[in-house]
Amino acid sequence: MSFNLVDRYALYKEGTNRVTRWLVGTATACRRSATAKNKSGIISTRELLQYANLIAGWKPPIEIPGNIVELIKDVVVGRKACAEFYDAQNAADAGHDAFICAPEDIGEKLRGARRSRKKEKGPAREDVSDAHQELGSKGLKAEALRNLFEHLQVEDSSEEAWRSVPVKNEVKHLIAPPKASPTLETDPEEETRFALFCSSRACSRFERSLRRPGQRLAITSSATQQLP
After folding, report:
1. How many angstroms separate the first and last alpha carbons of the chain?
2. Whether the Cβ atoms of residue 76 and residue 100 lie closer than 8 Å to each other
3. Where's the DUF6604 domain (predicted)?
């Protein structure tokens, strides 16, 4: 299916869930007791931040995948765009604004740990996150959504994360990832508002595409290919 026709909310949701799975699985591999208390599989933003702190400070350092760091950044950009939209409508949501802070903090923690590891390993090429800063606000949002779509095409490595974590003072073969697939705790009303925002943006983009003959042909062809 064409990138422009993909459900934006589904992309953001899967991006968030993939990051959550990686954080929980990796934190469990570092220290099993860190995640043992959570039996429900529903993870709060506070817990995620605790896991990120554990991972970022673990010795020996953990290899933090670049696509995980970028997924966090792309999801935050989408959430911020939603917050800006409702702010402009005088319908700001303090809960949604607070929800954005946690992924931002987590991203900073992991980026910092990743940079430190790169310095220890020697000079490396420019971080994609730094390159994104050169984009304008509108370009940043579009680029983040496209990057999110591309990053989600990468095989989900969250289930293997626990196997590659350097373990200290523990027997590695005794460590296993959580049995339940963890998901991030969210507020239903806030999620509905975010889903509506994503749908409205997608509809606007689709409408603009239909006004351009070349785009209309590409979209029609893509949609036809999806028919059974």
Report:
1. 13
2. yes
3. 11-206
Amino acid at 48: L
Q: Where are the alpha helices (DSSP H) in 31-136?
A: 33-36, 45-56, 66-88, 94-121, 128-132
Neighbours of 168 (CB within 10 A): 10
| Tokens describing residue 161 | 């994360």
What pLDDT score was predicted for residue 81? 86
Between the alpha carbon of residue 132 and those of residues 3, 73, 135, the distances in Å are 20, 10, 6
Q: Give backbone dihedrals phi and psi of 43, rounded to 5 degrees, phi first.
A: -105, 130
Instruction: Report the candidate in 10, 13, 15, 73 with the shortest Cα–Cα distance to residue 202.
Output: 10
* pTM confidence score: 0.69
Q: What's the angle, vertex CA 222, arms to CA 216 and CA 224, rounded to 5?
A: 100
pLDDT at 109: 95
Q: Residue 207: what pLDDT?
A: 66
Mean pLDDT by 10 residues, the chain (228 residues): 62 88 92 86 93 93 88 87 82 72 93 85 46 44 64 50 45 45 88 86 69 54 50
Phi/psi of residue 147, each to 5°? -60, -40
Residues making up the chain, counted from first to last? 228
pLDDT score for 108: 95
Task: Write phi, then psi, for 89 (nearest 5 degrees).
Answer: -95, 10
Task: Centre a 10 Å sphere on the Cβ of residue 180 and count the other Cβ atoms it contains.
Answer: 12
49 and 106 Cβ atoms separated by less than 8 Å:
yes
